[in-house]
Design goal:
283 residues, mainly alpha, Farnesyl Diphosphate Synthase
Length: 283
């Protein structure tokens, strides 16, 4: 049951979102904010992401049955019965996350916590996902708002945190497009116009590669604003690996090269966030 609930609330993604908020809080010159405040805002972003993730499962319970990857989700199978009680739980989680961020930090952090859930739950899931190929591009703002929620703990958004927010925005499309390329038939059956569904392999590969190069270029900027050599090494190594996998996919599009690029995206972002956290602890 706990594992099932964890999947409904997308807790693995939520943890990643919470870590992004912590990175946003620590990506600034000078002393770091209070650990207690950082933990509270990170937990608020986790609750917010959980609310949006559960709403995504709830809203897509019918169309999820058309995809092998999502057909076994609890709302899709009927293991959990959709109804007002679930919506109330999701609303309570979102409200609680916003109030926690406002109480522990400030209204700006609370606004970013809310916007992260709103963009993913409403803008992406309800409005864009089945209407436009730009779905995940605009939906990528959800991760950026997590970084900004952490950065907003202290007055003034640091340049490094703003760059990290842009990194999250640029990272999301090639990450999800790579997965969609590997699962093209699934997305097509569900009527989701992801880039690999509406464009041929050659053009998809070119766009993913161009996006990845732009992402890596931006990820190398924080050392100009205070990030250290550890961050630079992580950005260079993770970025080089991600570009190499994107080149491989562009040259020979296949399920294997698409999934390799998908996992490379996870490695690249994990290295960046880990470097931010480690440098803050060593400062």
């Amino acid at each position: 049951m706990l594992r099932t609930l964890g999947s409904v609330f997308k807790l693995r993604i939520g943890v990643f979102v919470a870590i992004s908020a912590v990175a946003g809080a620590l990506a600034r010159p000078g002393s770091a904010p209070s650990p207690g405040v950082i933990a509270a805002v990170a937990f608020a972003t986790l609750l917010s992401a959980a609310s949006a993730g559960a709403f995504n499962h709830y809203y897509e319970r019918v169309t999820d049955r058309n995809m092998a990857r999502t057909a076994n989700r609890p709302f899709a199978t009927g293991a959990f019965t959709a109804g007002p009680a679930w919506l109330a739980v999701m609303a309570a989680l979102l409200l609680g996350s916003v109030l926690l961020a406002a109480w522990s930090a400030n209204l700006l952090a609370a606004a970013f916590v809310f916007l992260g859930a709103f963009v993913y739950g409403c803008v992406y899931t309800v409005w864009l996902k089945r209407r436009t190929v730009w779905n995940i591009v605009i939906g990528g703002l959800s991760g950026s708002f997590a970084v900004l929620a952490g950065a907003a703990i202290e007055p003034g958004l640091s340049a490094e945190a703003l760059i990290l927010a842009v990194v999250l925005f640029l990272w999301t499309p090639p990450h999800f497009w790579s997965l969609a390329a590997a699962l093209r038939d699934d997305y097509k059956a569900a009527g989701v116009p992801m880039l690999p569904v509406v464009m041929d392999d050659r053009r998809t590969g070119q766009i993913i590669l161009a996006n990845t190069v732009a992402l890596v270029a931006v990820s190398l900027l924080p050392p100009l604003f205070g990030a250290g050599m550890l961050y630079l090494a992580a950005a260079a190594i993770g970025g080089a690996w991600f570009i190499a996998r994107s080149v491989a996919f562009a040259r020979a599009p296949s399920r294997a090269t698409a999934m390799s690029n998908f996992f490379a995206s996870l490695v690249q972002l994990s290295l960046l966030l880990a470097a931010v956290l480690i440098e803050a602890m060593l400062a």
